[in-house]
Amino acid sequence: LSDFAARPGTGVRGHVEGRLVEAGTADGLLPPELDAARTAALDAAQTPVLVRVDGRPEALLALGDVVRPGSYHAVDRLRRLGVRPVLATGDEEKPARAVAAALGITE
After folding, report:
1. Sign of CA dihedral 33, 34, 35, 38
2. Does domain 2-63 correspond to CATH entry 3.50.50.60?
3. Maximum CA pair distance of the chain?
4. CA torsion angle 10 62 69 79 (round to 10)
5. Coil, strand, or helix at residue 15?
6. pLDDT for residue 91
7. Where are the domains of the chain?
8. pLDDT at residue 28, as a whole number
9. Is 26 exposed, middle or buried (CB count within 10 Å of its CB: 0-12, 13-18, 19+)?
10. Rg of the Cα trace of the chain?
11. Are 99 and 67 in contact (CB under 8 A)?
12. What's the Cα-to-Cα distance from 29 to each of 56, 68, 84, 99, 105, rounded to whole Å?
């Protein structure tokens, strides 16, 4: 890997064996199979990440959040202390709602 660069909010890029490889937001026109994968990822409350090689869309990764085991106990403890838990995030709405639902958070 050479010429690695992280672009906040859009993804990463670098050269691998002389080829430009980029991973980032899955926006824009995509081949039908990758567009279907993007839709499936969004429907499953996952974040789609598009992989391009030399500018061509090649793959789509579906990334999901994993709730840490201690989070359930922490949220339960807050409730017992009289604190109303609220989830604040900069993530997309569906993944955020999925995490909130897993923890029993309604706001």
Report:
1. positive
2. no
3. 57
4. 70
5. strand
6. 74
7. 2-63, 69-103
8. 87
9. buried
10. 18
11. yes
12. 11, 35, 42, 29, 35
**Residue that has been written with the tokens 């989830």 in this structure:** 87
Q: What is the pTM of this model?
A: 0.73
Count of CB atoms within 10 A of residue 68's CB?
A: 9
Q: What angle, rounded to 10 degrees, do the helices at 69-80 and 93-103 form?
A: 70
Q: What is the pLDDT at residue 66?
A: 86
**β-bridge mates for residue 11, sequence order:** 7, 24
Instruction: Please provide the size of the chain in residues.
Output: 107
> How far is the C-alpha of 6 from the C-alpha of 32, rounded, in Å?
28
Average pLDDT by stretches of 10, the chain with 107 residues = 93 98 94 96 91 97 90 95 92 84 92
Report which secondary-structure segment, H or E, holds 86.
Answer: none
* pLDDT of the residue at 61: 97
Structure tokens that stand for 12 in this block: 């990463």
